[in-house]
């Protein structure tokens, strides 16, 4: 079994170790951005974006960690989630625009709920039909999920067409809160806290329940979990469905965040999701959160300072972290 | 095929028959490509023939990776693009000379090799499956860079440039008594012919090189690694070093294919070299043809190129025929051909993972 | 005629393209320690993994009591009351000692009596109860792996080279622990350390090149030096 790098117990580690990295990024970015209000806006945007990417990445990371399944079709859940949420919001336009918090909230819940429901069902189908026949065969897994991704993208084109779709944002979540001279978009705060709730729920599930214990054990050593009398494939399908549900929800949130979505969105986000999973380390949601926040912050700061290098900067971030810690910042084993 | 009348004779080995069929098909394709300018005289056909030549090299070099080492890279278009862009940028800035192709193409190949070595050393030592993700990330960054560094690459529009005199349509390779361009079997011996044969012979050379590589001791080691990584490691092969070497070789050859493509098209842009749909094409071609066979690349490329043209025509007909039914015509629109190809692809991976060439060649050996 | 708890009938197992077991037949009687000896690569680990269903026999049968378990899923084999301690110990490093043990106990609840017995056998388990398992020493990890196997009553425990890489003092302590465990269950022990094996085992089989080269009482093998040199020259040289 590979064992990850263990904490060395230095001063930095005592105060949070790698968890300080996003904080360090914020501090470094402040003088580079120049103005405090811009920096604050970018930081909030980065954290919100990070949380949405975390929702998309956490499932992929667990699925990967548990069964060594690398699912390229994951981005299809994101795209479908975004488009389904957009369609639901468009259908409930009256509620969305209404000046009632209750109706606003209902419309938003319906949109995210529909995306989540799709993720759940599609996840089950995907796991049973696409992934299951090729367990433990990486090459064919990548090829088959790639094929499924092609089909899913084409289906999106068939259903919604290729033109960008605008997403109505509920009145509840539009506008900004002004704090001093910093304007903070309400939607970003919402996205941040929804992501945080998802993280806390996942964390508690993994660390306080027996199923969570099984998942963590399975990520480390699948065979041993079976030798203790558990069916890992049954745990896996549950994790897979949870992962696709979270991805679809993340996509739904992303749709509202962007306001305008196109069918290529999933593919573009998948690159970020992969970077997050690699940076964070496989099979750990703490790692996914850490990676997602770093990617979100990096993307927003660099987009402000060097607009053209946003994506390249995250690639660079990944390369540096791979050089420093080949297993990622917070792999499931050894942390 | 075994002759039923000669039961007492040893039955012909079906695997050998299969191999002969594959060799036959490949030889036929080779001949067709060699005489393509004479066999298919319209512009579109010569375009298809040149594309097939370049893609055979590109897909075969990808097969060296996926088929002979079992690692999946999504950065193959990145290397292809580096060769093409290097050539294009040099031709644009240095003028339409051979020196520009040499310098630009050389720089592109060098960049591809260095980048491949870097990615290989960095990510192959961790976990083979990381590699797919890292290469995907690298490729998308390259795509973004190409479309955003418009000062050098002219962004989304791409670069249009001149090629050496020899390849220009106005060039007369051979003249008849009147000083006009000579025609052989009705085909004008102009620069276009020179360009085609430049592409053809270079592609043939690169493909031959790849065949040599997989039949060399290196190829044997690679297959040992693919069959059993741990055992190969135990025997003492340094798996990471070998994989990185192969990745670098594949990248260099892909970049060379990029040079040919840039010279032939006289245009280089993100859509002709770096786009993700080309990567998907390569993947489909290598799987359909048969991974780990090299010859499968030839069959896969030809089949996919044909399908790209004729499947679309067929779907056009089907789509208009079903126009009365609600959703069906949308599914059958020519633009949706990837949908059906995707489905075919999945079925192929499930049921014929060896692809066409692999299935034919292995038939009966198991 | 003694009651056999486990029977292997002409078991053949392939790993990938390699034929590893060429017809292993074993009769493991109920109770005590049954030792499998043999050189590296002889097929001892493969035999254990085949019993556990982690690798599949393509010929022959594995019979546990009256169940044919040859084709059963690993988890179902485990639920019949067979525990497995692999060579790499199979510890979940990211989990605490307690969590490792909790996974192995039915319904996640501990039987206090058994737990106390384990703490007496291996005091380190109590001491490091809430520590992550990766922080344990090699010997402590082995103790955890064995504790995990005995936290529930098992019919049969398969243990793969528990002394590998351990200091002699720890091995001596391990012998006592194994004697106590073997009083209530059957242990099928793969071992290269002949001293350790011979002080525990009542029965022994020697595997060579995927076949059983010898089966009999351990006492017979310990007394017959000629037999030892013939069967085990390598491992005896290394350990005496």
Q: Using DSSP, what is the number of strands of chain A?
A: 4
The chain pair forming the largest interface, with residue counts per chain, is: A-B, 40 and 41 residues
Nearest-angstrom radius of gyration of chain C?
17 Å
Question: Shape of chain C from CA axes?
Answer: globular
Query: Describe the biggest sheet of chain C?
Result: 6 strands, mixed
Within CATH, the superfamily of the domain at 1-81 and 185-240 in chain C carries the name P-loop containing nucleotide triphosphate hydrolases
Secondary-structure content class of chain C: alpha/beta
SSE order of chain C:
EEEHEEHEHHHHEHEHEEHH
Order of strands in the sheet with most strands of chain C = 6-7-8-3-9-10
Q: What keyword list fits this structure?
A:
heterotrimer, A: 335 residues, mainly alpha, globular, B: 366 residues, ABC transporter involved in vitamin B12 uptake, BtuC, 72% helix, disordered N terminus
List the helices and strands and how they pair.
The complex is a heterotrimer of chains A (335), B (366) and C (240).
Chain A: H1 11-14, H2 21-33, H3 36-67, H4 74-91, H5 93-97, H6 101-131, H7 138-160, E1 165-166, E2 176-179, E3 182-185, H8 186-208, H9 210-220, H10 222-227, H11 232-258, E4 260-261, H12 265-280, H13 285-305, H14 310-324
Antiparallel strand pairs in A: 1-4, 2-3
Helix pairs in contact in A: 2-3, 2-13, 3-8, 3-9, 3-11, 3-12, 3-13, 4-6, 4-7, 4-11, 4-12, 6-11, 8-9, 9-11, 12-13, 12-14, 13-14
Chain B: H1 14-34, H2 36-39, H3 43-69, H4 76-94, H5 98-123, H6 128-148, H7 150-153, E1 159-160, E2 183-184, E3 187-188, H8 191-215, H9 217-227, H10 229-235, H11 239-265, E4 267-268, H12 270-273, H13 276-289, H14 295-321, H15 328-332, H16 337-351, H17 355-362
Antiparallel strand pairs in B: 1-4, 2-3
Helix pairs in contact in B: 1-14, 1-17, 3-8, 3-11, 3-13, 3-14, 4-5, 4-11, 5-11, 8-11, 9-10, 13-14, 13-17, 14-17
Chain C: E1 4-15, E2 18-29, E3 32-38, H1 44-51, E4 57-64, E5 67-68, H2 74-79, E6 82-85, H3 97-104, H4 112-121, H5 123-127, H6 138-150, E7 156-160, H7 168-182, E8 186-190, H8 194-200, E9 203-208, E10 211-217, H9 218-223, H10 225-239
């Amino acid at each position: 079994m590979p064992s990850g790098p263990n904490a060395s117990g230095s001063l930095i580690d005592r105060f949070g170790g790698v968890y300080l990295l996003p904080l360090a990024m914020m501090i470094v970015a402040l003088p580079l951005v120049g103005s405090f209000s811009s920096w604050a806006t970018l930081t909030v945007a980065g954290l919100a974006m990070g949380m949405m990417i975390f929702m998309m990445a956490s499932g992929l990371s667990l699925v990967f960690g548990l069964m060594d399944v690398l699912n390229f079709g994951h981005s299809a859940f994101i795209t479908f989630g975004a488009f389904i949420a957009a369609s639901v919001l468009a259908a409930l336009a009256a509620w969305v625009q209404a000046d009632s918090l209750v109706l606003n909230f209902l419309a938003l819940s319906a949109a995210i709920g529909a995306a989540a429901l799709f993720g759940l069902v599609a996840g089950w189908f995907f796991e049973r039909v696409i992934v299951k026949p090729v367990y433990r065969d990486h090459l064919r897994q990548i090829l088959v999920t790639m094929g499924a991704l092609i089909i899913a993208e084409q289906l999106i084109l068939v259903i919604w067409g290729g033109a960008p779709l605008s997403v109505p944002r509920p009145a509840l979540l539009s506008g900004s809160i002004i704090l001093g001279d910093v304007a903070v978009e309400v939607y970003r705060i919402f996205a941040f806290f929804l992501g945080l709730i998802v993280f806390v729920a996942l964390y508690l599930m993994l660390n306080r329940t027996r199923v969570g214990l099984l998942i963590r054990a399975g990520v480390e050593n699948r065979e041993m979990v079976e030798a203790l009398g558990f069916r890992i494939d049954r745990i896996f399908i549950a994790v897979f469905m949870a992962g696709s549900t979270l991805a679809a929800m993340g996509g739904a949130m992303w749709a509202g965040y962007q306001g305008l979505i196109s069918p290529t969105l999933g593919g573009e986000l998948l690159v970020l999701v992969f970077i997050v999973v690699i940076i964070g380390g496989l099979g750990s949601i703490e790692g996914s959160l850490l990676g997602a926040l770093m990617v979100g912050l990096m993307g927003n700061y660099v987009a402000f300072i060097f607009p053209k290098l946003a994506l390249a900067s995250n690639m660079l971030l990944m390369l540096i972290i791979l050089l420093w810690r080949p297993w990622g910042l917070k792999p499931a084993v050894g942390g | 095929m075994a002759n039923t009348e000669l039961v007492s004779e040893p039955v012909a080995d079906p695997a050998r028959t299969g191999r002969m069929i594959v060799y036959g098909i490949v030889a036929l394709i080779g001949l067709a490509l060699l005489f393509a300018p004479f066999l298919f005289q319209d512009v579109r056909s010569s375009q298809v023939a040149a594309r097939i030549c370049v893609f055979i090299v590109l897909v075969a070099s990808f097969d060296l990776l996926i088929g002979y080492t079992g690692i999946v890279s999504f950065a193959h278009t990145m290397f292809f693009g580096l060769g093409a862009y290097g050539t294009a940028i040099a031709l644009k800035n240095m003028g339409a000379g051979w020196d520009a192709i040499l310098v630009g193409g050389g720089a592109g190949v060098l960049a591809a090799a260095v980048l491949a070595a870097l990615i290989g050393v960095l990510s192959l030592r961790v976990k083979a499956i990381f590699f797919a993700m890292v290469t995907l990330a690298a490729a998308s960054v390259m795509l973004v860079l190409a479309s955003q560094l418009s000062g050098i690459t002219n962004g989304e529009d791409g670069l249009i440039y001149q090629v050496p005199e020899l390849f220009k349509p106005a060039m007369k390779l051979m003249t008849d008594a009147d000083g006009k361009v000579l025609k052989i079997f009705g085909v004008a011996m102009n620069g276009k012919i020179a360009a085609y044969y430049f592409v053809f012979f270079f592609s043939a050379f690169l493909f031959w090189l790849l065949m040599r590589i997989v039949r060399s001791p290196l190829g044997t080691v690679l297959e040992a690694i693919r069959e059993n990584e741990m055992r190969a490691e135990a025997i003492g092969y340094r798996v990471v070093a070998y994989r990185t070497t192969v990745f670098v070789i594949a990248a260099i050859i892909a970049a060379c294919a990029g040079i040919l493509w840039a010279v032939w098209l006289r245009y280089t842009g993100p859509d002709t070299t770096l786009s993700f749909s080309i990567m998907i094409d390569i993947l489909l071609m290598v799987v359909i043809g048969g991974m780990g066979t090299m010859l499968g690349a030839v069959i896969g490329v030809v089949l996919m190129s044909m399908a790209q043209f004729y499947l679309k025509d067929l779907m056009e007909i089907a789509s208009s025929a079903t126009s009365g039914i609600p959703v069906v015509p949308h599914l059958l629109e020519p633009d949706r051909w990837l949908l059906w190809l995707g489905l075919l692809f999945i079925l192929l991976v499930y049921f014929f993972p060896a692809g066409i060439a692999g299935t034919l060649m292995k038939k009966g050996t198991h | 005629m003694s009651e056999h708890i486990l029977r292997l009938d002409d078991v053949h197992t392939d790993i990938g393209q390699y034929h590893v077991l060429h017809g292993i037949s074993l009769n493991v009687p109920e109770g005590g320690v049954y030792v499998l000896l043999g050189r590296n690569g002889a097929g001892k680990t493969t035999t254990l993994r085949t019993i556990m269903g982690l690798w599949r026999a393509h010929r022959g049968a594995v019979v546990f009591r009256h169940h044919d378990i040859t084709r059963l899923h690993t988890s179902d084999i485990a639920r019949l009351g067979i525990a497995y301690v692999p060579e790499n110990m199979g510890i979940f490093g990211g989990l605490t000692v307690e969590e490792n043990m909790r996974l192995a106990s039915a319904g996640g609840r501990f039987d206090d009596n058994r737990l106390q017995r384990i703490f007496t056998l291996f005091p380190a388990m109590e001491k490091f109860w809430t520590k992550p398992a990766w922080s344990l020493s090699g010997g402590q990890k082995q103790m955890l792996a064995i504790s995990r196997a005995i936290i529930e009553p098992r019919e049969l425990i398969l243990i793969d080279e528990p002394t590998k890489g351990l200091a002699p003092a720890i091995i001596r302590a391990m012998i006592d622990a194994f004697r106590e465990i073997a009083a209530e269950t059957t242990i099928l022990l793969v071992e290269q350390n002949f001293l350790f094996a011979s002080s525990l085992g009542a029965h022994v089989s020697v595997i060579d090149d995927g076949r059983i080269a010898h089966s009999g009482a351990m006492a017979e093998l310990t007394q017959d030096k000629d037999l030892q040199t013939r069967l085990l020259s390598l491992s005896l040289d290394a350990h005496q």
